[in-house]
Amino acid sequence: MNLRHLLIALCCIAQAHAQEESTRSLTLDARLLNLPVCNGAPKQLVKLEVGGKEVREFEIEFTSEKKPDFYVFLDVTAWKGQAALLRGPAAVVAGIESGDEIKTSVPVYAEQWRPQFHFTSMRGRLNDPNGLLHYDGEHHLFYQLHPYGVKSGSKSWGHAVSRDFLHWEELPIAIHAEEEGMMFSGSGVVDWKNTTGFQTGKEPPLVLIYTATGPPRDQRLAFSNDRGRTWTKYAGNPVLPEVAHNNRDPKVFWHELTQLWVMILHCTEKGKKLPPIDPKDPTRKSGEFVFFTSPDLKQWKREGSVIGFAECPDLFPMKIEGTEKTKWIVHGGLGEYFVGDFDGRNFTRTSDLLHGPYGSAYYAGQNYSDMRDGRIVQQGWAKMGDNFFPGMPFAQMMNIPCEITLRNTGRGPRLVWQPVREIEALRAKHHAIAASVVNAQSDPLREVQTPFFDLHAVIDVGTATEITLDLRGTPFVIDVKKQKLTSGKASMPMPIREGRLDLRLLSDHSLIEIFTDKGFKFGAFQHMPNAKARIAPKLTASGGEAKIVSLDVHELKSVWPISKKN
Predict the structure, then answer these.
(1) Which of 90, 243, 323, 444 has the greatest count of CB atoms below 10 A from its CB?
(2) Is 373 considered catalytic here?
(3) Do 250 and 390 fall into the same domain?
């Protein structure tokens, strides 16, 4: 055996040893267990036992051949001071460290590509917003979270709270993936009348309704009596056994007229043929949204249904602006929606399928329940590739929360989106750009030396055929004739009224959100960060000249406790 073969053999022996299951005893005398992650390495199964009972099971990417790329964490506060046992591959178990802080070379929230005014999780990969609710001054954001890596994996419910939709405090995971499977999407409510009987003190219980993947796949409850700081899974789960293949994503609300809880649930039954949801596109997949009613969130009766679209359904009433007339909105994961009427059991459409948010980075929007100020606030997942934050210990982000209203048009009522007004509190340095010509050589935004800003522009398109806003190397091109904005493969309408376009744009790392046509059009666009590209946005025109009517840019402050550099 030559030296090369010997080294290969020794390496294989070392790898095999590292993969052997090992146990490690320890006392949980700190808040966290820091878990090493090597991106792209094989997944390794690790278990934590306390008092002879398995309390957590998770997979992390790890290899002993390289240093960890970063650390994720497991909060063990619930068992502080107790003896515990770790089970897993020897190298993984040996590399787990106990501590009160997250192990990191860069402070949390100060990482190079951390978005500065959109929610991201401290660690791990997030997706759909779940259980959005308001209680006593706090907005509760729950979300799908794989806490042990930056690629899609086992789903639990992450949890954060805010008083302004912008500054978030991340709390411990609310409901963990356990023996009943992963914790898929769902909703949250305040049980003001204590219909569940969960209340133990003076305050009403907060209740989460979610899908457990099983199998079988069913709907379950968890509740809190301490303002959402700790959660208990209902002992009588499931409250709605599997009713159809892939039933999932329950959205629940209290229907005042019937004095019942209503659930809208995505149900796709094998072999059931459904008519196309969009007559203009018969290839578009349809799904059935089914309604259920309950007096107590525990016993459910099947009612009517509506042929739906995608997943993550929502159903909510809205008054048409300037009137006392109420209409109901049904929409799905893509944000497309119907306007109609709902009597507590059946939904009647009064519109065709209507387009929701445009672009490539909006999905699974859900409304916050129990808002006390009359606003309807919706938040989506800014869906993008997991590589959009290269080298970071987190992946994916949430869209900016939007206030939505219902406005009459000549074609019927339509939804309008605007970013929550609270974002104005983040405004810092103001750039008021004077009226000037925009052409191929123009550079009116050169003084804006930050990628974090809120821009409002009114531009007379003049003789220009294209107007381009380049943001850190990503062009956003407006075709004047087609009245369309395009970035990469994604696009949105860009109406030009009386020769002018009017748009508002929010810029953060990896995400651009655009509002135009008085809010009737909203688009969210992903863009890969480019460290070598210039920071200042560049506005140009081609094919002719345009003119700035007004252009205001407000730099935006970071919402995180540690601000970051560009």
Answers:
(1) 444
(2) no
(3) yes
Residue in 53, 65, 62, 54 with CA at minimum distance from that of residue 34: 62
User: CA–CA separation, 277 vs 298, rounded Å?
Assistant: 32
Q: Which of 551, 524, 525, 558 is nearest to 451 (CA)?
A: 558
Return the residue matching tokens 């405090």.
169
What's the predicted TM-score (pTM) here?
A: 0.94
Instruction: Retrieve residue 114's tokens.
Output: 């951390």
Range of the domain at 336: 124-272+283-419
Cβ pair 337, 412 in contact under 8 A: no
DSSP string, 270-312: TT-----S-TT-TTS--EEEEEEEESSSSS-EEEEEEEE-SS-
Q: How far apart are CA 182 and CA 76, in angstroms?
A: 20
Q: Which tens digit of pLDDT belongs to each residue from 121-177?
A: 999 999 999 999 999 999 999 999 999 999 999 999 999 999 999 999 999 999 999
Angle at the Cα of 26 from the Cα atoms of 24 and 32, rounded to 5 degrees = 110
Contacts with 523 (C-beta within 8 Å, 6 or more apart), sequence order: 357, 358, 359, 362, 485, 490, 492, 513, 514
Taking the C-alpha atoms of residue 234 and residue 544, their distance in angstroms, rounded to an integer, is 65
Active-site hit among 128, 454, 502, 517: 128
Query: CB of 538 within 8 A of CB of 444?
Result: no
Do 56 and 181 belong to one domain? no
Nearest CA among 398, 390, 376, 228 for reference residue 314: 376
- Distant-in-sequence, close-in-space partners of 337: CB < 8 Å, separation ≥ 6: 329, 330, 331, 353, 354, 356, 415
Count Cβ atoms below 10 Å from residue 323 Cβ, excluding itself. 11
